[in-house]
Design brief:
about 130 residues, mainly alpha
């Protein structure tokens, strides 16, 4: 398997750790962003296993949906998780007046952990 797959998965795990660390502060918007990037990097790793390397977030989202959600290689709910997290990241990155509540960020963080764990299991199963 392409070594970049494992680098992307490692980055996804780092993003999970960053989100968890930041969630302990008073910066929930930063935690939400890190949770999104965890899912994004996991999706990139998955797509790379089928020879796809995207050059935009939207291309990554749509190709993940096409090749992993619609085919049910992974639960389709993960596609919804990444799309919702992307919308949250965009709104908090580009509108400084948007403030998130801790419970909604905690939910997004839980979704990111679940998504990365599913990607991890899928990729490890491919290695066997």
């Amino acid at each position: 398997m392409n070594p970049k797959v494992w680098s992307l998965l490692a980055r996804a795990h780092e993003d999970i750790q960053a989100a968890e660390d930041v969630l302990k502060t008073t910066l929930p918007e930063r935690a939400a962003s890190a949770a999104y990037y965890a899912m994004f990097h996991a999706a990139e790793a998955l797509l790379l296993t089928i020879g796809l390397e995207m050059n935009s977030h939207s291309a990554t989202h749509s190709n993940y949906g096409l090749h992993f959600a619609k085919t049910r290689k992974l639960d389709p709910k993960y596609h919804r998780y990444i799309l919702d997290a992307f919308d949250t990241r965009l709104s908090t990155d580009y509108d400084v007046t948007v403030k998130l509540r801790i419970p909604e960020v905690e939910e997004q963080f839980a979704h990111a952990k679940e998504f990365v764990a599913a990607a991890d299991a899928y990729l490890n199963a491919l290695e066997k």
